[in-house]
Write a structure and sequence with these properties.
Elements lengths: L6 H8 L18 H26 L7 H28 L21 E2 L2 E2 H19 L9 H24 L19 H19 L15 H20 L7 H29 L4 H15 L8 H25 L7 H19 L2 H4 L10 H31 L7 H6 L32
Antiparallel strand pairs: 1-2
Helix pairs in contact: 2-3, 2-4, 2-7, 3-4, 3-5, 4-5, 4-6, 5-6, 5-13, 6-11, 6-13, 7-8, 7-9, 8-9, 8-10, 9-10, 9-11, 10-11, 11-13
Length: about 450
């Protein structure tokens, strides 16, 4: 069975070439301007995905909670940036053991303009940062409309350090036990396992601990602004070209292939969601179509650098159907996953990871899946990666949430929830009240213990 190292593993390995003990006659990697420019653009595209996610989520909540929902995603940019450049990047991408990296690059020591593959090391670090930012932001969709802001901040920092960073090292870091060259090598081109399974399953755990929103089941919680959600979905689709295409870490055919497969899968998933929604619910909705596109983007993420057209078509159409019923699963489980973080990202990521083991082509990514005559071990490794990452993320998330809940730092009071979380920040998304003179007025900010 022919194996290939993932772009992230290759880049991490190339960092070792700068060690002082390296023989002077060894060939040093050279920085390529085109590759550097593409990864820089890709990093900017992935960063844009987080505000895009904020809009996607913000349009689905009620008007009284839209600002607090937007803040959850946007605040992740600042929080995770500081965490990543101090210790997160080092623990994920430094040499250590199969389960966690070391502190060689803490506070970006040794992270500068030296080559990491064909791009500067600091650009590789920055590109990886954008993945670390959006992952906890995805989780926020599961607990929208009922979490304290300070609880969200504490949870985001703890989860990123204890869950995301180790999983990132397992799959993409040097010597990770699920990474290239290991016995259990799990194929994950751009984050189906690292980003989507980990965040989707974490969302499920958080929803279980927090419980349902007040009135959920008794009243219908309608999205307040679906055009906002569609705009967010469009920005996610746009940014995803950098998410997947940039993961090639070069500007050549690998990036272009991932770029094309990404678009095909998203389009197929939007159509298949529309079809199954029409057959199951008797209508086609804008929210469903946008959700289908996101499902396809999630599903193709681990596979885009390993599969061809057949795989992209199957994963796209399959993700739309599987995630449609994944979203309905929360009703069966009686879990209030507010904005379908688990149904889209957890289910879609797992489906895409397993499908990668089936449709991977030697001619594309160097690894043969089942349809290319590959060994069943490829699919087994994918299954192991899905199960282990899901179990680890769920377990640690559940513990973090329980500790915060026991300390009274997680859920707002019922009265505060009824008024809306935006009031707790002293703001409103739509300040339309007018005084007797016709001038617009605004309520004074009200301090709250929930902040």
């Amino acid at each position: 069975m022919k194996r290939t190292r993932s772009p992230f593993a290759l880049a991490a390995a190339s960092l070792l070439l700068s060690a002082p003990a390296l023989a002077q006659d060894a060939a040093e990697p050279a920085i390529d301007g085109a590759d550097t420019a593409w990864v820089m653009v890709s990093a900017a595209l992935v960063l844009l995905m987080t505000p895009g996610l904020a809009l996607f989520y913000g349009g689905m909540v009620r008007a009284k909670n839209v600002l607090s929902t937007l803040m959850h995603s946007f605040v992740c940019i600042g929080l995770i940036t500081v965490l990543w450049v101090t210790v997160g990047y080092s623990l994920a991408f430094s040499e250590g053991n199969p389960f966690i990296g070391g502190l060689a690059h803490a506070f970006l020591v040794g992270v500068g303009g030296d080559p990491s593959g064909t791009i500067p090391h600091d650009i590789f670090m920055l590109f990886q940062l954008m993945f670390a930012i959006i992952t906890p932001a995805i989780i926020s969709g599961a607990f929208a409309e009922r979490i304290k802001f300070r609880g969200f901040v504490i949870f985001t920092l703890a989860w990123s350090l204890l869950v995301y960073t180790p999983i990132c090292h397992w799959v993409w870091g040097p010597g990770g036990w699920l990474g290239a060259g290991s016995e259990w090598h799990a194929l994950d081109f751009a984050g189906g396992t690292v980003v989507h399974i980990s965040s989707g399953v974490a969302g499920l755990a958080m929803a279980l601990v927090l419980g349902k929103r007040a009135g959920k089941g008794d009243t219908v919680h309608q999205p307040h602004n679906l055009p906002l959600t569609l705009l967010g979905a469009g920005l996610l689709w746009f940014g995803w070209f950098g998410f997947n295409g940039g993961s090639a870490l070069a500007s050549g055919s690998g990036a272009s292939h991932a770029f094309v497969m990404t678009h095909i899968a998203a389009s197929c998933a939007a159509l298949s969601w529309m079809l199954v929604e029409r057959l199951h619910a008797g209508r086609v909705t804008l929210l469903g179509t946008a959700s289908g596109a996101v499902a396809g983007l999630v599903g193709i993420t681990p596979a885009c650098g390993f599969v061809g057209l057949t795989g992209a078509l199957f994963i796209g159409f399959g993700a739309g159907v599987v995630c449609y019923f994944g979203v309905l699963l929360k009703t069966k489980l009686k879990v209030d996953d507010s904005l379908d973080a688990f149904g889209l990202h957890g289910v879609g990521g797992a489906f895409g990871a397993l499908a990668t083991g089936v449709f991977a082509l030697t001619a594309v990514g160097g690894t043969a899946g089942l349809i290319d005559g590959g060994e069943s071990r490829v699919l087994i490794n994918q299954l192991v990666g899905v199960v282990v990452v899901a179990a680890y993320s769920f377990g640690v998330t559940f513990i973090i949430a329980k500790i915060l809940d026991g300390a009274g730092q997680l859920r707002v009071s019922e009265a505060e929830e009824q008024r809306g979380l935006d009031e707790l920040h002293g703001e409103r998304a739509y300040a339309m009240d007018e005084g007797e003179d016709g001038a617009e007025r605004r309520a004074a900010p009200q301090p709250s213990a929930a902040i």
